[in-house]
Write a structure and sequence with these properties.
The chain is built from 12 helices and 10 strands. The chain has helices at residues 2-29, 32-37, 56-76, 188-193, 217-222, 236-252, 269-280, 308-314, 321-324, 337-342, 362-379, 414-427; strands at 85-98, 101-114, 117-128, 136-141, 197-202, 262-267, 286-290, 349-354, 394-398, 401-406. It has a 10-stranded mixed sheet with strand order 1-2-3-5-4-6-7-8-10-9, with helices on both faces. It starts with a helix and ends with a helix.
Length: 429
C-alpha cells in the first residue's frame, strides 16, 4: 500500500508542477503590467502598450496587426505558409429547378498536391441563370454537398461526419438516405431566386471534425509527417477557414464569378471559421456569423453558455495548444470577441443569434457586436449601435454593421437567410 501511496504522490506532484508551470508561462507572456493598463481587458481601442487608437492609421498599422498576431498565437494558431498545386475536374453541370427556381448547378473536384501528397475537396456551386458575377455566399456544410439537395449529381461525402439520427448516418458516415436532409439550412430557391449564388464544400474535405492527430486533412499537405506540433500552431478552425479561402480562389477563376462580391458565412463552429476566414482573407467582401458562440462572436467574459474550459475539453483540436492554457484563467486572456469582430472592419459584418440558444450566449454575441462599433466608427462616424439588447426577431442595422436575434434555437433557417441576403444586396451594390 505504501508503494501505491508513493506512486500517487509522485504523479500528483508532477501534475501540480505541470499546471503551475503552465500558469506561470502565461503570466510571463501576459504580464501584470499589460493587464493593469486595461483592468477590464475589453478596450479594443487601447494597444497593448497603452497607446490609444483614435484614427484608422493607428488601427490599421498598430492595433490590428498586434490583435491578429495574438489570435494566431493564443487562440486559432498560426497557419504555415504553403501553396499546393490545384487541379480542377468538372464532375457535373446541369440545370436544377428548386421550388420553381431554375439555377445552374456545377460540381468540381479540386485536387491539392504538394511534396508528393494529395488532398481532395468537392465544391458545389449554384448560380442564377442570367446574372453575371452575382453576389456569392461562400460556406462550408456539415454533412456533405449531397445533404443540401437530393439531386444524384451532388457528391456524397466519404468523410467522417457527426452521427445524426435524422440523416440516418452509420458509423460516422452519411448514407443514401441522408441526401437532401439538410436542405432547409441551404434554401437554394431563396438564395438563387434573390439573384445571389452559393458555393459550398464539406468541412471534412479540409479537416475531419474529430481528434486524430494533426497528420490528415490539410495538415498533411502543409507539414511533414514527422512534424512536432508547437504550442502556437493551427487547429481545425484555421483549417476550415483555409478551405473557405480555397473556395474563394476557385470562384475567382470562374467565368461567371471572377468579379463576384463574396460573403463568408458559417453556422455554429463554422461561424467561428467564417469569422477567422474574414480576418485572414480580406478578399471576402462581407462576413456572416450565425450562432457562432464561444470563440466566435460571444464574449469570453460574460461567463454564460460555453466557455474556454468547456470548449477546449470537448474540442481541443479546434485551437492552438496555447488556448487550452487559459482553462480556468479566462481573465489572463488579453482579448475579447469585440476585437475579433472589429478585425472585419470596415467590411460589412452581420452577426446572427437565436433567442433560446443559451449555449452560444446570444447576449454575449450582441455585446461583442455592440463594442465592435468602436472600430467601425473610425471608418463611419455615423455608426451608432444601441446598447439595448433586441427582442426576439429584432434586427439592428447601422451602416456596415448588422445583428439579429431570431426567435428560436441553435439553427440557421430561411428567416436568417432572408436577412443576410437583403443586407448583402444592400451593402455590396
Amino acid at each position: 500500500m505504501k508503494n501505491y501511496n508513493v506512486f500517487f504522490f509522485i504523479i500528483g506532484s508532477l501534475l501540480a508542477v505541470s499546471i503551475a508551470s503552465c500558469v506561470r508561462s502565461i503570466e510571463k507572456v501576459h504580464s501584470p503590467e499589460l493587464r493593469k493598463l486595461d483592468p477590464k481587458l475589453q478596450g479594443v481601442r487601447k494597444c497593448f502598450d497603452n497607446d490609444q487608437v483614435n484614427d484608422v492609421y493607428t488601427w490599421e498599422n498598430k492595433r490590428k496587426p498586434e490583435l491578429i498576431d495574438y489570435y494566431e498565437n493564443y487562440i486559432f494558431g498560426k497557419r504555415p505558409e504553403f501553396s499546393p498545386k490545384r487541379e480542377f475536374t468538372l464532375l457535373a453541370q446541369d440545370t436544377l429547378v428548386v421550388e420553381g427556381v431554375s439555377m445552374i448547378h456545377k460540381e468540381v473536384e479540386v485536387v491539392f498536391k504538394l511534396n508528393g501528397k494529395r488532398r481532395k475537396c468537392f465544391i458545389a456551386e449554384f448560380l442564377p441563370l442570367d446574372i453575371e458575377n452575382p453576389i456569392v455566399f461562400v460556406g462550408l456544410n456539415f454533412f456533405g454537398n449531397a445533404s443540401i439537395h437530393p439531386s444524384l449529381s451532388l457528391t456524397q461525402t466519404k468523410n467522417y461526419v457527426i452521427n445524426n439520427a435524422t440523416l440516418q448516418t452509420e458509423r460516422h458516415r452519411v448514407t443514401e438516405a441522408s441526401r437532401g436532409k439538410k436542405a432547409y439550412r441551404w434554401p437554394l430557391a431563396l438564395i438563387v431566386g434573390s439573384g445571389c449564388g452559393l458555393a459550398t464544400a464539406h468541412y471534412g474535405d479540409f479537416d475531419a471534425d474529430v481528434y486524430n492527430g494533426f497528420f490528415d486533412g490539410v495538415y498533411g499537405l502543409a507539414q511533414s509527417y514527422l512534424h512536432v506540433r508547437k504550442r502556437n500552431e493551427w487547429g481545425s478552425i484555421s483549417a476550415w477557414a483555409w478551405g473557405l479561402s480555397e473556395i474563394q480562389t476557385f470562384l475567382e477563376q470562374g467565368e461567371g464569378t471572377k468579379n463576384s462580391k463574396t460573403v463568408a458565412i458559417g453556422h455554429s463552429r463554422l461561424g467561428k471559421a467564417a469569422l477567422w476566414a474574414g480576418v485572414t482573407d480580406e478578399r471576402f467582401d462581407m462576413v456572416v456569423s450565425n450562432n457562432s458562440g464561444c470563440a466566435g462572436a460571444a464574449q469570453f467574459r460574460t461567463m454564460r453558455g460555453e466557455d474556454i474550459q468547456k470548449i477546449t475539453k470537448r474540442f481541443p483540436y479546434w485551437f492552438s495548444k496555447n488556448f487550452r492554457s487559459f482553462n480556468g484563467h479566462d481573465s489572463l486572456l488579453l482579448v475579447d470577441q469585440e476585437m475579433l469582430l472589429s478585425l472585419i472592419a470596415p467590411r460589412p459584418l452581420y452577426v446572427g443569434s437565436a433567442s433560446i440558444d443559451a449555449w452560444s450566449d446570444p447576449e454575449g454575441e450582441y455585446l461583442s457586436f455592440y463594442k465592435a462599433q468602436a472600430i467601425y466608427s473610425l471608418y463611419d462616424s455615423k455608426c451608432d449601435i444601441p446598447y439595448g439588447y433586441p427582442s426576439p426577431n429584432g434586427v439592428v442595422q447601422e451602416g456596415n454593421m448588422a445583428y439579429h436575434l431570431r426567435a428560436g434555437e441553435h439553427e440557421i433557417l430561411a428567416w436568417d437567410w432572408e436577412r443576410y441576403i437583403a443586407y448583402a444586396k444592400n451593402r455590396l451594390k
